[in-house]
Design brief:
Elements (H helix, E strand, L loop, with lengths): L9 H7 L87 H9 L33 H9 L4 H12 L9 H10 L2 H18 L1
Length: 210
Amino acid sequence: MALPLLESMHPALARAAAASPKRMVNICSTLGLYSGSWFPTTGGAGYEATEYLSLIDGHRDRYTLFSGFAHQEQSGRQPHNSEITWLTAARRPGMDGFRNTISVDQVAANHLGYVTRFPSVVLSTVTPQSQSFTRSGAMVPAETSAAELFRKMFLQGTPEEVAREAQSLNDGGSILDRLKSQTTALRRRVSAGDQQKLDSYFEAVRTAEE
């Protein structure tokens, strides 16, 4: 099971900082955002935070805003046809003869995916439809089940072991119950601040299992 970043890890992380892989996260808001509440009216780092940006203003030095970008020829048969070309920029979505192209996240996965445990993780909330497409233009189905995502990320071993662990979770058990000795030993070795962080993390894991 993965752990959150702890103070006790900093020395080791400092030694491995140069090899730490970068991640790309693409989030599609299908209904869009009101531009007046998103984009600042002035440029430069000293802009006045807008209604939306004020929520993340504490991280201002860690992100960059871009405006004025648009894909060409995105008018399909329906207004939302352009959702499938958000990461590809393929033209005339939904029209006769349309064929999508590879999405930018899959380009990154093909070139850099070997440095992370999963080259690509495609998620959705309700349907498996996604904005991720292969080089041939085929959609990469999204995972919609939190339980299945949890299984893929945290349950390891042979197929039989994974099946037993999954059944235990279905029966109301917790992966933390089988790691109790390890988590108890870990808490003894870390600082008080790390202990609080671990407690919060373990509580979140139990909530996710439910």
